[in-house]
Design goal:
Elements (H helix, E strand, L loop, with lengths): L1 H13 L7 E6 L6 H13 L3 E6 L6 H11 L1 H17 L1
Parallel strand pairs: 1-2
Helix pairs in contact: 1-2
Length: about 90
């Protein structure tokens, strides 16, 4: 996971002037919430705007909690993501 975090957080670490917002949204029954939690913590350390959103389980399986949640539950995560991004873009 360390290499994944290094790769995924690189754009934030490279550009000290970058204020890109990071939003991580997942259903509680996703395959693995570790990467989202780790990346959110990395952005917090870097002082970058971020939001970690863990929603109640979606469906019955890890697959439903991952891809199903992402593709079919936009009504669940969409408003929170849009609200965060709107506020981050105003700054």
């Amino acid at each position: 996971m360390e290499r994944f975090v290094e790769f995924a957080s690189a754009p934030y670490r490279r550009g000290k002037k970058s204020d890109h917002a990071g939003v991580f949204s997942a259903g509680e029954n996703d395959h693995d919430l570790g990467p989202s939690r780790t990346l959110a913590a990395e952005l917090q350390k870097l002082g970058k705007p971020y939001k970690l959103l863990i929603f109640p389980p979606y469906g019955q399986t890890h697959e439903e909690g991952h891809g199903g949640f992402c593709m079919r539950a936009t009504n669940v995560w969409g408003p929170a993501v849009i609200s965060f991004l709107d506020a981050a873009m105003e700054k």
